Amino acid sequence: MFDFIPVNDYSYYYYQFYLIVILFIFINSYLHNLNNKKSIGVLNLLGYISLFFTILYMGLRPINGVFIDMTMYAYMFERFQDNDPVIIYDDFGFYYFLEFCSKIMTVEFFFFICVLLYVVPLYFFSKRNFKKYWAYSFIMFCISFSFWAYGTNGIRNGIATSFFILGLAYRKNKYLSFGLMLFACTFHQTLLLPTIAYLLTNFYKSTKVYLLIWLIVIPISIILGNYFVKLIEISGFGSDKVGVYFTDEVNEEFVGSGFRWDFLIYSATAVIIGWFYIFKRNFNDVFYKHIFNTYLICNVFWILIIKVNFSNRFAYLSWFLMAIIFIYPLLKDKIFKFQNARIGLLVFLYFIFTYLMNVILIK
């Protein structure tokens, strides 16, 4: 346990660590070419340091209300230990996992295992896709805007998205890939949206059409957004836990407050970068287009219900793919002259937004 760190400053030091890592990456990228052995050596060292730090620092955090949902899961864990089990209606994969762990380990070790399930799949995805450049991808995941929140608060959702990404890592084995995505849905049923979107975009592949739909739904949501929220509320979409997002009886930092232009602008950065790679730089990679189309569909769904409470949780069903959309082409093809420097700049700018939102603006 990192009990010596004030719990209210716990996330602050996480971002300070990554600020140092990103500065090293930025400097290294400007000193060496992408294939330089020294550059690759430094990158791998930073990658493994980041991997072990993230697992240990996040996995050994104290059980505290600062991490919100963590205390709820600790309470459920104790109920299972006391033979007073929680009634399971949905997300049964996670709750059966929680019940199993309660019989053989401490609650502290349970949360450590949760972090392993959250972080290690991202390492496997990065390693399988990018080989010696894996650290760029892995660190991009770790410095994403919502990464910390979904490892310490939205734990079920975070693990589910990581299993989805693990499914992408094994995409050449269709049965294993789809099985991992379905397993992700048992941890958090909202993963049905990206799973269905991924399957749909396997059959209909026109990125131009998906981009057009994304643009069209923005004015539709501005005009008819309340109607879509009400329609989903009446339809009884999802579980009671999902349904609470459509009520007013909640209190959170991201509670619905009208049309979220800030979230939309953030989402649009991935749309712009994907459009740039595919249409301006002619990056013709089947997998990349597949992921980009999946992102567009999931983001369209969120835009339509952008005014709901906890809007960030619906946005995360597309946001968790943003790191892939930003970095994948740069590690797969020659996009720019002095590409390593461009990668370093991209990673730096990507992190600066996260640092701004999670450190500077909350002070």
TrEMBL record:
Protein name, UniProt field: EpsG family protein
Membrane listed as a keyword: yes
Entry keyword Membrane: yes
Matching Pfam families: EpsG
Top-level taxon of origin: Bacteria
Keywords: Membrane, Transmembrane, Transmembrane helix
Matches recorded under InterPro entries: EpsG-like (IPR049458)
Organism this protein belongs to: Flavobacterium ponti
TM regions (residue ranges): 12-31, 43-60, 104-126, 133-155, 175-200, 209-229, 263-279, 291-308, 314-331, 343-362
